[in-house]
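Deliverable D5.2: sample structural annotation.
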Amino acid sequence: MTYSNPGAYNRFMGRWSARLAPLFLRFSQIHESANVLDVGSGTGSLSQAIVGLASETNVTGVDPAPSFVTFARDAVSSSRAQFRAGSAENLEYADGTFDAALALLVVQDFNDPARAVSEMKRVTQRNGMVATCMWDFKQGLPMISMMWQAAEMVAPGSSARHRPHTSVRYTSVLDLEALWKNGGLKDVATEAIELPMPFRSFEDYWEPFLEGSTPTSAFAATLEEETNGMLSRVLRETIRGIQPDGSFVLPARAWAVRGASPG
């Protein structure tokens, strides 16, 4: 799956990718002079964190969407970062080119995740780290699940037709662990990464949905129009812990897995 509006995506989910990226890097145990491949680099959140890790760190970002490649080049203004269009399943690099290969929040969108993991392992040098993480879509992302709950209240039929009950792959840490072990990586380890999602207001939370940058947000935007704003009114009422200034915080959790390339 690819997306066509990187600016809108960055406002919707990219800002949270940027918060998650440093935590994922810490888990991935990347050393300060590493040459890293960022697979599915998107708007550049992980690449930005990689070049910020140390002055000797270099990153190459690969993404199938040319518009996202262009966006990342503008967003990550460092001579130690480069970006190109390419497929995770067919990485155009020689064996052992990189010290590490990482993928942030994209494994579920790969056409062939097992093939992509094999490619990440291939281009990583012996004992180099191969790692990924993805949101816990089942129980760890209230930002999204609250919208679906509100949608079920205002339009149960439409919600049932569009909600991705079975289409999201690798919904647990055990799924990711199995993907890594089946891919031949060694010393596989997993972790739950927790982080807060602070919002300045309900509008700060809701307005990025209306730009329709993903299938989920596109559904929300369409349903909001079809229900004359009822979706957002119901959703607003479900949020707890709103402060006097209108701000609130939602929890979030991502599953992470790493393993060493056997070379």
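Annotation notes: Residues 6-260 form a domain with the Rossmann fold fold (CATH 3.40.50.150). The chain is about 40% helix and 25% strand.
The annotation will be released with the project's public dataset once the embargo ends.
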